[in-house]
Amino acid sequence: MTFVSQEILEKLATISKEDADLASFGIVKLDPQGSVILYNKYEADLAGITPEEAQGRNFFSEIAPCTNNKLFYGRFIEGVANKDLNAEFNYTFTYKLKPTNVAIHLLHDTASNSNWVFVKKK
């Protein structure tokens, strides 16, 4: 069961940065190639990268290169290609911070044709 609230899931097509910043978990919206479109405060605080620094950069190679592997990026690429991205798993971030255990939910929202990475520190 996802840690992402139903309220958030229902408004992915129209979620504002302000609403995303109120969430108690990381919200990252990515284009199909993995470039950051939206990066909320929780994720910025967790990673030590400001939303302004993240904007337009590739999440997997520039923002969180520790995710550039088959387990994380591979699932993202495959799910985006098949338009069925919906994967939940535990992960350990190691880039720019001490190893940090997190829960991850990758999602392609069909209604808004958008791709999401949700992160919750464990």
Task: Describe the protein.
There is one protein chain. The chain is of the alpha+beta class and 122 residues long. The protein has one domain: PAS domain (Beta-Lactamase, 2-Layer Sandwich). Helices cover 32% and strands 29% of the residues. The chain is built from 6 helices and 5 strands, in the order ααββααααβββ. Strands 2-1-5-4-3 form a 5-stranded antiparallel sheet. The protein is globular. The model has no long low-confidence stretch (mean pLDDT 94).
Distinctive features:
29% strand, alpha+beta, 6 helices, 32% helix, five-stranded antiparallel sheet, Beta-Lactamase, globular, 122 residues
Question: What is the number of independent domains?
Answer: 1
Rg computed from alpha carbons, rounded to a whole number of angstroms: 13 Å
- General form: globular
Tell me the fraction of residues in β-strands, as a range: 25-35%
Oligomer: single chain
- Looking at the structure, the CATH topology is Beta-Lactamase
Strand order of the largest sheet: 2-1-5-4-3
CATH superfamily annotation: PAS domain
| CATH class descriptor name | Alpha Beta
List how many beta strands DSSP finds.
Answer: 5
Helix fraction?
Answer: 25-40%
Please give the structural blueprint.
Elements: H1 6-10, H2 17-21, E1 26-30, E2 36-39, H3 41-47, H4 51-54, H5 59-63, H6 70-82, E3 86-93, E4 100-109, E5 114-121
Antiparallel strand pairs: 1-2, 1-5, 3-4, 4-5
